[in-house]
Write a structure and sequence with these properties.
The protein has a two-stranded antiparallel ribbon. The model has no long low-confidence stretch (mean pLDDT about 75). Strand 3 and strand 4 form a beta hairpin. It has a domain of about 35 residues. It is an alpha+beta fold. The protein starts with about 35 loop residues before the first helix and ends with a strand. The chain is flat and about 60 Å long.
Length: about 80
């Protein structure tokens, strides 16, 4: 049997059911705004990483600060960002 034998049919329709959100345990604490969870996680992890992994045409791979002009420590060639 191949896929070109005809259309495939589902045995039941796919539906998505919405789940109701559970009420907050403490009504005196307002819910966090959207994106607050991601910000809190980034702060706990030490914030954003200001290093990037560069690979040079000479084959050398290195981490360096994220800037518009980075030179390869092995051969000195400039890296495009």
């Amino acid at each position: 049997m191949s896929f070109s034998d005809g259309p495939m049919h589902l045995t039941r329709p796919l539906t998505r059911q919405r789940r109701e959100r559970a009420p907050h345990a403490r009504p005196d604490i307002p819910p966090r705004p959207a994106g607050a969870h991601a910000q809190a996680r980034a702060k706990r992890s030490g914030g954003p990483e200001d290093l990037a992994l560069y690979t040079c045409q000479c084959g050398f791979a290195f981490k360096a600060a994220v800037t518009t002009s980075v030179g390869c420590p092995e051969c000195g060639a400039g890296q495009a960002w």
